[in-house]
Design a protein that fits this description.
The complex is a heterodimer of chains A (114) and B (116). By secondary structure, chain A is mainly β. Chain A has no helices and twelve strands. In chain A, strand 5 and strand 6 form a beta hairpin. In chain B, strands 2, 4, 5, 6, 9, 10 and 11 form a seven-stranded mixed beta sheet that branches. Chain B has a four-stranded antiparallel beta sheet with strand order 1-3-8-7, with no helix packed on it. Chain B is 0% helix and 52% strand. Classes of the chains: A mainly beta (114), B mainly beta (116).
């Protein structure tokens, strides 16, 4: 069965410092992997995805994520955090079956202090 | 603005009642997804429709049903409502074709349902 784990409920980072939001997954075969961000009282917004190819994926707002097949991880990173990055971040996984459902992680609240 | 619209924004109703939530996908998107977001359960996938047909089912209760119409808008029907059904309900759409499921989803602003 598919599953996604975001082991940290909350991540606190000082503005200007690098940030990492962790995600590990379990899926049979090769997955599609996604990161979404949710600001208060808003729907989720797509940040980036891994489909195939280069393990380092770049997305919106300066975020990037690294696909690590051996560790079954897809951690979200940014070299220099902004206060405006404070939000709820969701990792999601889907296997390559066309009829498969997408599974979201439990979310990680990112708080950037000035 | 994602291009996905949902109505109503807020809904307050009593236990035992039935409500219908509506979603219009982005222009050109054939797939519609429904999600429930609550504090204790996180974001739960309910159901997906592709071009009018049910494509995948998640943790959707038997009291809930959905459909996608020929104009591609979708409705989620919730009946015999319980206090625990209070949540944010999101609709999302994606462009994916018949065999490709790699596309990202675009989420609507959600409908906040309060059952009293």
């Amino acid at each position: 069965a598919q599953s996604v784990a975001q082991p940290e409920d909350q991540v606190n980072v000082a503005e200007g410092n690098p940030l990492t939001v962790k995600c590990t997954y379990s899926v049979s075969g090769n997955p599609y992997l996604f990161w979404y961000v949710q600001y208060p009282n808003r729907g989720l917004q797509f940040l980036l995805k891994y489909i195939t190819g280069d393990n380092l994926v770049k997305g919106s707002y300066g975020f990037e994520a690294e696909f690590n097949k051996s560790q079954t991880s897809f951690h979200l990173k940014k070299p220099s955090a902004l206060v405006s990055d404070s939000a709820l971040y969701f990792c999601a996984v889907r296997d390559r079956s066309s009829a498969s459902k997408i599974i979201f992680g439990s979310g990680t609240r990112l708080s950037i202090r000035p | 603005d994602s291009g996905v619209t949902q109505t109503p924004k807020h809904l307050i109703t009593a236990t035992g009642q039935r409500v219908t939530l509506r979603c219009s996908p982005r222009s050109g998107d054939l797939s519609v997804y429904w999600y429930q977001q609550s504090l204790d359960q996180g974001l739960q996938f309910l159901i997906q429709y592709y071009n009018g047909e049910e494509r995948a089912k998640g943790n959707i209760l038997e009291r809930f049903s959905a459909q996608q119409f020929p104009d591609l808008h979708s409705e989620l029907n919730l009946s015999s409502l319980e206090l625990g059904d209070s949540a944010l309900y999101f609709c999302a759409s994606s462009v994916e074709s018949g065999t490709v499921s790699s596309y990202e989803q675009y989420f609507g602003p959600g409908t906040r349902l309060t059952v009293t």
